[in-house]
Structures are given as structure tokens and as C-alpha cells.
Protein: Ankyrin
Organism: Setomelanomma holmii
Amino acid sequence: MAAAQCADLAVVELLLDHGANVSAEGGMWGSALVAAAYGENQKVVELLIDRGADLHFKGGHYGNALQAACVKAGVETIDYILDHAIDLVNHRDGKYHTALIAAAYFDRTEVVSKLLEVGADFRYQGGQYRSAITAAA
């Protein structure tokens, strides 16, 4: 997972080529995919997804890869995740409970707009900040 968060595409690819479990669980982030999404590592995110990483993994600090990406990753990374698992847009887990609440809390206007565009539930209430509007304020 350290290689995934630190953007070392060559190391991640080498480990996978030698049989590393693409969906191994553990650590603060819960999985390599979540670590890569949080670490703004689009190429590593793409590699892990293309190699079969579990997009529906629940756990770690942010709950899933989409929520982690909404904290600071580029919109291209978020689009890539959504293209492979659109249902994650309203998945509830992790510190912020939803991707929309995470994006709102971190003032990610472009990401909030994207999530609303693809059907994020702005009415949902839960988690530490209770709602997207509360998180944004």
C-alpha cells in the first residue's frame, strides 16, 4: 500500500506482476486503491482498477476509493472511478459518510458539481458533519 500512496507506478506494477493481491486489505487507508486515490495517483488508480481492485471495498479512514479521491485527487481520477463504479456516488462509509460530504468539506467545488451531476444525494444526513451543506459551511 505504501507504493500505491507514494505514486510509484513501477513498483506497484512489479508487485502485481509478481502476484501481490490487488485487493489486499490493511493499514490506515484500508486498501491500495484507497491509498492511491487519496495520494492523487491517477496512473496507479487506473492500474489497480484495470488489474481488478475491489472498487466496492469498505474500510479505512475514507471508506472507499471515491471518497478518498474526493478529498484531493483530480476530477479525471474521480471520473475514472465513477466510470467503473457509478453506484459509489451514494455509498455510505468512512469519516465523511459520502463522497459528496467529503468533497463539500474540502471545498472541492468542481468535484461537488460533478457528484451532483451524476446523482449524489445532497439530502443524505449522517456522519461527523451530518450533511453536505453543513460540511461546506
